[in-house]
Every structure is written in C-alpha cells, then in structure tokens.
Design a protein that fits this description.
This protein is of the alpha+beta class. It has one domain: Alpha-Beta Plaits. The protein is 37% helix and 33% strand. It is built from 3 helices and 4 strands; from the N terminus they run βαββααβ. Helix 1 runs antiparallel to helix 3. The N and C termini lie close together (6 Å).
C-alpha cells in the first residue's frame, strides 16, 4: 500500500475555522467518488505552535498508479482550485508500507 500524507497551512484570507472545515469535508467526500482511494483520514490541528500546519490528510492507495489517478480526478482537481486560493504552504510525503 502507498500512503500519501499532506500537511497544509492556510493563508488567513478566510477564517481558519471556516476554510479548514470546508476543505476537510470536501476531501473526505472524495472516498465516495474515487475508487483508487482506499482510505482517507483528515485531521484539523489543535497545536498552537507557529511551526504547526492547520490540516493533515492521510490517504491510502494500492500503488503510485492509484495515487496518480486520484491527483487528476475531476473531483480532486476542484479541491485543488480552492486550495490554490487558500493554502500558504504544504508538506507532502508518499511512502509504501
């Protein structure tokens, strides 16, 4: 299995409570429309340190082909458009387990 981990820090253009919940809900809804996505967990940060990110996504796929299908899926691309306007920075790790 391939695990895809993404941490996001929002840019503050929208209230954190609003945008983080919106993105979380939209990401979690992807499990119903992307068959390659085997499992997804989305968490909202409670840490107040300046180095902390606001949201973490952990998603599992059979392999890199499944991850690549997810990346270009139209429902995922819609969320990426929202993120372009609201995310300041991301950190990503993909690994097999």
């Amino acid at each position: 299995m391939l695990r895809h981990v993404v941490m996001m820090k929002f840019n503050g253009k929208e209230p954190l409570e609003t945008i983080s919940v919106t993105v979380k809900e939209k990401l979690e809804a992807l499990t119903a429309s992307i068959p390659e996505l085997k499992n997804m967990e989305v968490g909202l940060n409670v840490n107040t340190k300046p180095s902390a990110h606001d949201l973490v996504l952990i998603a599992d796929f059979d392999d890199e082909e499944g991850l690549n299908a997810y990346r270009v899926h139209p429902e995922h691309v819609k969320i990426l458009e929202i993120m372009k306007e609201t995310v300041e920075k991301t950190a990503v790790v993909d690994y097999y387990y």
